[in-house]
Specification:
This protein is about 45% helix and about 15% strand. By secondary structure, it is α/β, with parallel strands linked by helices. It binds adenosine monophosphate (AMP), fe (iii) ion (FE) (2 copies) and zinc ion. The site of one fe (iii) ion (FE) has 5 residues, from loops.
Length: about 280
């Protein structure tokens, strides 16, 4: 088969975006708006992966039936790995699992307390931001630093969204506060016990190749290969690791919408549909 035929089969198969955020975390679109946008972009399947929140999933699955887009259950957890904060994507878990829901509740309460501490720190350095303005940004979703950055931006207390991190709330900023501590092993156990698969999210952002191997040894099921922060050569490297260790591949746009300026990524960072089927067969045979 020539390259042209291969490309034709490839495009006929359809594409999936397995990393998307809604208003249930720091995304700008509601589940319905996001599913509709996925249909318009010609995507066949998506995973909504809100931070510490599965609240979008039930309605998104229903909207998926309306718009003809398969919606698989997703979630993005944060874990502490040495001095670093890493993100773990979970797929195909049971979103009604009681144990999982209880943990997520705890994480979100801890996020609220952390936002309170960050606001206090900002006030101490004479940045007049209110917790209320941050809560309004978060709405029904789990609170994160992006909401604080947007609240600062709205009040003109920072020039750009990114500057809020470099000047105030980033890892080395004067108003930085650590998140609730959960080890990668604990996060993966939580995913496994609710029937899902764990993937290391966007390793190119923060994980050295040695750390990546350590996380594979700890039981990561797969790696997010396709992500806007990964160059072609990084993608090839991660795909090689996936094959070498018999892992699974994932990928998506990490689209948030709104002020994140990531509209270019939607539809442009995706994986072929068989990636989803491979995950399913790893779990269900
Ligand atoms: P949180 O989960 O509350 O710690 O927020 C983490 C999120 O903040 C990440 O997923 C990014 O979207 C965003 N973020 C973290 N650091 C930066 C940075 N330096 N510049 C812009 N956005 C950042
Ligand atoms: Fe986010
Ligand atoms: Fe992430
Ligand atoms: Zn994300």
């Amino acid at each position: 088969m020539g390259a042209k035929e291969q490309r034709e089969i490839f495009s006929a198969e359809g594409r999936a975006d397995l990393h998307l955020h809604t208003t249930f975390s720091d995304g700008a679109l509601t589940p319905q708006e996001l599913v509709k946008k996925a249909q318009a972009a010609g995507l066949k399947a998506i995973a909504i992966t809100d931070h510490d929140h599965v609240g979008a999933l039930e309605e998104a699955v229903d909207w998926g039936k309306t718009y003809g887009v398969e919606v698989i259950s997703g979630l993005e957890l944060s874990a502490t790995f040495g001095e670093k904060d890493i993100h773990i994507l979970a797929y195909f878990f049971d979103p009604t699992d009681k144990n999982l829901l209880e943990y997520l509740e705890v994480f979100r309460k801890e996020r609220l307390r952390r936002a309170e501490r960050i606001v206090e720190k900002l006030n101490k350095i004479n940045i007049p931001i209110t917790l209320d303005s941050v809560l309004k940004k978060a709405g029904e979703g789990s609170i994160g630093r992006p909401h604080i950055a947007n609240a600062l931006l709205d009040k003109g207390l920072t020039g750009t969204y990114h500057e809020a991190f470099t000047k105030y709330i980033g890892t080395n900023g004067p108003a930085y506060e650590k998140k609730f501590q959960l080890s990668p092993e604990e996060a993966m156990r939580l995913v496994t016990s609710s029937g899902g698969l764990s993937f290391l999210a966007h390793p190119g952002n923060y994980t050295t190749d040695a750390e990546l191997l350590d996380l594979i040894r700890k039981g990561m099921d797969g790696i997010e290969v396709v992500h806007p922060s990964h160059s072609e050569s990084r993608q090839e490297y991660y795909r090689g690791v996936v094959n070498q260790y018999f892992l699974l591949e994932s990928g998506g746009s990490d689209y948030h919408g709104g002020k994140k300026n990531d509209d270019y990524a939607f539809g442009a960072f995706s994986v072929p549909l068989h990636v989803v089927e491979t995950m399913r067969s790893r779990l269900f045979g």
